[in-house]
Design goal:
The complex is a heterodimer of chains A (518) and B (640). Helix content of chain A is 72%, strand content 3%. With 518 residues, chain A is mainly α. Chain A has one domain. In chain A, the strands form two sheets. Chain A has a three-stranded antiparallel sheet with strand order 4-3-5. A two-stranded antiparallel sheet of chain A has the order 1-2. Chain B has a domain at 569-635. In chain B, a hairpin with a 2-residue loop joins strand 2 (72-82) and strand 3 (85-93). The interface between A and B is medium-sized, with 38 and 26 residues.
Chain lengths: 518, 640
């Protein structure tokens, strides 16, 4: 019996993941040992510190280009860039999650197990502070995401996928108000997510089978083995393509591409709004990071096979997102469909399959993350006695009531619509430019046309806010506490800055746009 | 052309030539941004900034005079850098720019001083000076730019300032309309200039004067012709020349200092500057020059004829401006030595026309803003200073020896007779006839205003002379009207030689002898003036009287406005209506149909979003099957 040889780990390179993982474990201990009243500030500070520390480690690692833990984890340009992006966006999300001034006790339920609608439920909704388990759960999710974008084989990737999905399923169920909607959303997300994971696993198995058939020295699921197998193989590629298709389905589910987007509106609507923002920003970054690595590193040799299919998926995604956004009446569902359409635009960048495609997609992810967090930040503020007023008719005349927040929201919507001087313009310009250079003009045409459709729902909200008279039912806007205000300001400022001077971040993304093992 | 254009780098004091533009621009910004807080002292800041610019201009002028190569340029920063297009924010100070700087700041300063008095009772005086400074800054940029884009920026800048100042009393519908008219007609010309600049960039890859002038010789003749005609279109728009002359008389709705500075002395001569500056282009193509000469000759006659039939003192002066600029176009069109003649006439005209406009303003000031010369008469006794200074301007414009017009207009007439073929008679004859007509209508204006019986409206009992702050600029400009021509004729021609080329002495001989032409023109002048004196010394009817067809036509601007209305406005309105109809029915219909389709599709698709996990899972499964099938189909080459 041979000794099991442990792989060497580069702890410095893995530090961001480990810090977050450790911090979430620490958070669990805090839950166990600190009195309830003290937990919230401690957890919030601990989480923010952990995120900042991880971010510092990412910055210190900035020049690393290595594969560690045998071949399981690749710390390279895209991994570091996306880890940084996830951490920054997660930090802002934590500000939204930690807000307790807008609504008494925060956005989260105090006792998730209490029966909905019972007197105890009413009491806890009015009086008690929210669950503080959300912080460790969030940190678990973030550490999973960091691992996901750095995973260099399919197994690690799958584990990371589950590591960030499971906390998210839970987090979705924890809304303080409209708890049934929230629990329903979580259950749907969980069922469909498991379903998608099954596709991913099955795809992995098929790909393994392919590599066994193709390679000389046995099979494997690490990306280099797959790459070599794809490159050299004369074996039947049916296994390969079926496997790749199923893997892609698992990932397309996470990025919410049509027709695997069906969970998005329900989950975005039901989840507590800070969590919706977190998912829209960070999950998108992580999922695209994984997709980029799978397509650019492992299956690049098969690009002629997957390009047309994924192109059709991208067009369909943009179209479905844009067209369905038109008739939405709930702001969170509208933003959900907008997020679907944006997944389509990101796919356009991914399918450029070039260095520009990689860097522009990464830039887009960051820019979109900031804007979408600002948007959901505003959504948390527009409320009435029953909580957030998400029905669009309630937003009529908001500009008259609170010009500042209506103005900020207008700005973010204009960014989503891709108006110049906002990051929405520069990022769309970048991905479309990359796609044009790569000869994918049909994707760009579809992108521009759907952008036109998509401008309508955004502008409809703007028109409602500014040109309608405020009615009796126009909700007031709560004054944000410092945390939401900070999150909102960072999001809007980034949207503006990335629209006016995008070059530094574009250069950074471009400098990072090289996978190890390509 | 073997002669290459080169400019030295500006060094020393001349390196700060940008101050000329910056000082009035900063002053304008202060006046317009501070708002009412600057009301009490704002006008003095406006005057001071132009005064400083004048002193700077003089300093730079003497610096330039002492240089070996009298052309320096200074590039401040890169203005536009897109692809191959690089445009610097660069300035060029050469003899041509220098004389314009002195004219703009010198005459501009006097008019600014005058305006302090003229606008004393206007609540918008600070705003007025803000716009006025803006104009000076833009005009200086126009003449100082070292490439066509800089010129264009200044060109549009003076256009904006002109629009703002014509419509300064924006509550008067006539002023608002006149502003719009000026703006729209200028757009036609500006489009020509812009396209000319595009052509330069497309064919030469640069808009720098040096590159354009050195490269133009190598261009195809058609390109040069197109470029020149488009430049000419721009020039006619800004300078109120045929066919874009109609806005200039209406522009007199603005305050009188505006008419004097912008619509007489400086801005409207920008077209002449443009052609003179572009002389290497215009000299390449005789056809082009003939077109310029024709425009000039036609316009100068038109201006005279219409001017003779008008009763509004400012409009008569405006048409006389149109006509005098016609002489300048004639000059720049003749080419060779006549370029310099046109510029000298432009400078002299700047003095005497500003003088007369300010005189007219002084008359209006004393006559409760009356402008109808039929209701003046006998003012000489009441306004001695205005009468004398206006009289000097009158003698200057009709070209009476020894006043300045004689020294500057006469050579242009002679030059017109210097052409080789029969056209010498045509253009020379037009210029001579114009001289006679000018004498007639200007004398009519002068006599009806200052002499003959009183024909004042009842509300005026004792017209008064204007305060010193208005009369002192009048006196200075009056002096200029006397001596400027004589002083400038030879030295300025020599001074401009490096830019415009020398006087081609001995190349051509006039078809008539020089003396003969002078005698003829002086005779015609005296005849015209005498005729007007005889007709109008006893005043005239208080109202317009029925008259023959020519006078009727002249009163209606020779039907040019009617022509514009029939040919451009009516079809324009019709086209607009048709487009609106097309937009409502066609474009909107299409858009609405598309929107309805999207909305309907959205509504249908929405029903698929049932909320049941089982149906979601089903749709994912369908999608999965399709994706896998598509992958395999692509592999099998079905779509390849």
């Amino acid at each position: 019996m041979t000794d099991l040889k442990l792989p060497t780990l580069d702890y410095a390179a893995l530090a961001p993941i480990l810090i977050l993982f450790g911090a979430s474990l620490l958070g669990v201990l805090v839950e166990a040992f600190l009195p309830r009243a003290r937990r919230h500030p401690v957890q919030l500070v601990l989480s923010l510190l952990a995120v900042v520390a991880a971010l510092v480690m990412v910055v210190l690692n900035a020049d690393n280009r290595l594969v560690t833990a045998a071949t399981a984890i690749a710390i390279d340009g895209p991994a570091l860039f996306l880890q940084g992006a996830i951490l920054v966006l997660a930090g802002i999300s934590l500000l939204l999650i930690g807000e307790r001034a807008v609504q008494r006790g925060g956005a989260f339920v105090a006792h998730a197990a209490v029966t909905v609608g019972s007197p105890e439920d009413a009491r806890q909704a009015e009086k008690e502070g929210g669950l503080t388990e959300v912080y460790p759960l969030t940190l678990f999710a973030v550490s999973g995401m960091l691992l996901f974008v750095a995973a260099n084989d399919l197994l690690t990737m799958f584990i990371a996928l589950e590591a960030f999905s499971l906390p998210l399923y839970l987090l979705c169920a924890l809304a303080r108000r409209r708890r049934l909607l929230s629990q329903e959303a979580a259950l749907k997300y969980f069922l469909l997510g498991s379903y998608a994971s099954a596709f991913f696993l099955f795809g992995m198995a098929l790909v393994y089978g392919f590599t066994v058939g193709a390679g000389d020295q046995g099979g494997g699921v690490d990306f280099l083995t797959i790459r070599d197998a794809v490159g050299n193989s004369s074996a039947s590629s049916i296994l390969l393509l079926a496997g790749l298709a199923l893997l892609a389905i698992g990932l397309l589910f996470k990025i919410a591409a049509a027709p695997f987007h069906v969970w998005t509106p329900d989950v975005y609507q039901g989840a507590p709004t800070p969590i919706t923002g977190f998912m829209a920003a960070c999950t998108k970054v992580a999922a695209f990071g994984g997709l980029l690595r799978v397509l650019y590193v492992a299956f690049f040799g098969a690009s002629w096979d997957f390009k047309p299919v994924l192109g059709v998926v991208a067009v369909l995604t943009m179209l479905v997102g844009a067209v369905l956004a038109v008739t939405q009446t709930d702001i969170k569902r509208l933003l959900a469909y907008s997020s679907v359409a944006n997944a389509g635009y990101l796919l356009v960048g991914v399918l450029a399959l070039s260095r520009d495609g990689l860097s522009s997609t990464m830039f887009y992810l960051v820019a979109y993350g900031f804007s979408v967090l600002a948007a959901f930040g505003v959504v948390t503020l527009v409320r009435d006695a029953d909580g957030e007023a998400t029905h669009l008719s309630r937003w009529a005349g908001l500009g008259r009531r609170s010009p500042l927040y209506a103005g900020l929201f207008t700005f973010v919507l204009l960014a989503f619509a891709g108006i110049p001087l906002t990051s929405g313009f520069t990022s769309k310009f970048a991905v479309f430019g990359a796609a044009l250079d790569a000869g994918q003009s049909y994707l760009v045409i579809a992108g521009v046309l759907t952008s036109m459709i998509l401008a309508f729902p955004y502008l409809r909200v703007v028109v409602m806010m500014w040109l309608s008279e405020p009615g009796e039912s126009t909700p007031s806007v709560s004054l944000p506490g410092g945390l939401t205000a900070a999150a909102l300001m960072i999001g809007v400022a980034a949207t503006l800055v990335l629209g006016v001077v995008p070059t530094p971040l574009l250069d950074l993304a471009n400098g990072a746009a090289e996978f190890v093992g390509r | 052309m073997e002669h290459t254009v080169e400019y030295a780098q500006a060094t020393g004091l001349l390196g700060s030539v940008w101050l000329l533009v910056a000082v009035p621009a900063v002053s304008a910004a202060i006046l317009l941004l501070l708002g009412r807080r600057a009301d009490r002292w704002g006008h003095w800041l406006g005057v001071a900034s132009v005064g400083v610019a004048f002193v700077l201009g003089l300093t730079y002028f003497f610096q330039l005079r002492d240089l070996e190569n009298r052309s320096v340029e200074r590039s401040l920063w890169e203005f536009i850098a897109v692809g191959n297009l690089h445009v610097d924010f660069g300035l060029l100070f050469d003899p041509l720019a220098a004389v314009f700087v002195l004219l703009i700041t010198g005459v501009g300063f006097l008019i600014h001083v005058y305006a302090v008095g003229y606008m004393a009772h206007d609540p918008g005086r600070r705003r007025f000076f803000g716009f006025f400074n803006l104009f000076v800054a833009a005009m200086l940029l126009l003449v100082l730019g070292n490439n066509y884009v800089m010129l264009y920026v200044g060109w549009e800048g003076v256009g904006v300032a002109s629009y703002l100042l014509i419509s300064f009393w924006q509550n008067r519908p006539s002023a608002a309309t006149a502003g719009k008219k000026a703006f729209l007609m200028n757009r036609v010309g500006d489009a020509g200039l812009a396209i000319a600049i595009f052509i330069m960039f497309a064919t030469l890859g640069s808009t720098q004067y040096a590159d354009v002038f050195n490269g133009a010789g190598a261009l195809a003749s058609g390109t040069v012709l197109a470029m020149g005609l488009l430049l000419l279109l721009g020039a006619t728009g800004k300078s109120g020349q045929f066919p874009l002359q109609a806005w200039l008389p209406d522009a007199m709705e603005g305050p009188t200092p505006v008419s004097a500075l912008i619509h007489a002395a400086t801005m409207v001569t920008a077209g002449v500057y443009l052609i003179a500056r572009s002389n290497p282009i215009f000299s390449l193509d005789p056809t082009l020059q003939t077109v310029v000469v024709s425009v000039g000759a036609l316009t100068l006659l038109m201006g005279c004829i219409i001017g003779a039939a008008k009763d509004d003192i400012k409009r008569v002066l405006a048409w006389s401006t149109v006509s005098q600029i016609g002489y300048m176009f004639l000059g720049v069109g003749l080419g060779g030595g006549a370029y310099a003649l046109a510029i000298i006439h432009l400078l002299a005209h700047g003095f005497f026309k500003a003088n007369m406009f300010l005189g007219a303003g002084s008359v209006m000031h004393g006559m409760k803003d009356q402008v109808n010369i039929r209701r003046f008469g006998g003012l000489a006794k009441h306004m001695r200073i205005t009468w004398i200074t206006f009289g000097l301007g009158w003698l200057a414009i009709i070209g009476m020896w020894p006043f300045s017009g004689y020294f500057t207009k006469e050579p242009i007439i002679v030059a017109a007779f210097e052409r080789d073929d029969w056209t010498a008679w045509l253009y020379g004859g037009a210029a001579l006839l114009g001289a006679g007509l000018t004498a007639f209508y200007m004398t009519r204006l002068f006599v009806l205003t200052f002499h003959g019986p009183k024909r004042w409206t009842e509300d005026i009992d004792h017209p008064h002379e204007s305060p010193p702050i208005m009369t002192i600029p009048l006196i200075l400009l009056g002096l200029g009207s006397v001596v400027a021509g004589w002083l400038m004729a030879t030295p300025v021609a020599d001074w401009l030689t490096p830019v415009l080329g020398g006087h081609g002495e001995g190349e051509h001989h006039p078809v008539l002898s020089h003396t003969m032409i002078t005698v003829l023109s002086l005779t015609l002048t005296v005849l015209g003036a005498g005729l007007a004196w005889l007709l109008f010394r006893n005043g005239t009817a208080l109202e317009e009287q029925p008259a023959g067809p020519l006078v009727r036509a002249a009163r209606r601007n020779l039907y040019t406005d009617a022509f514009n209305e029939a040919v451009f406005e009516k079809p324009g309105i019709f086209l607009t209506r048709a487009l609106v109809f097309l937009d409502n029915r066609g474009v909107d219909g299409l858009v609405n149909a598309l929107a309805a389709a999207v909305g309907g599709g959205s509504g249908r698709l929405r029903r698929l979003q049932t909320g049941f996990v089982r149906s979601y899972a089903m749709s994912m499964l369908t999608g999965a099957v399709l994706v896998v099938a598509a992958f395999l189909a692509v592999q099998a080459g079905w779509f390849a």
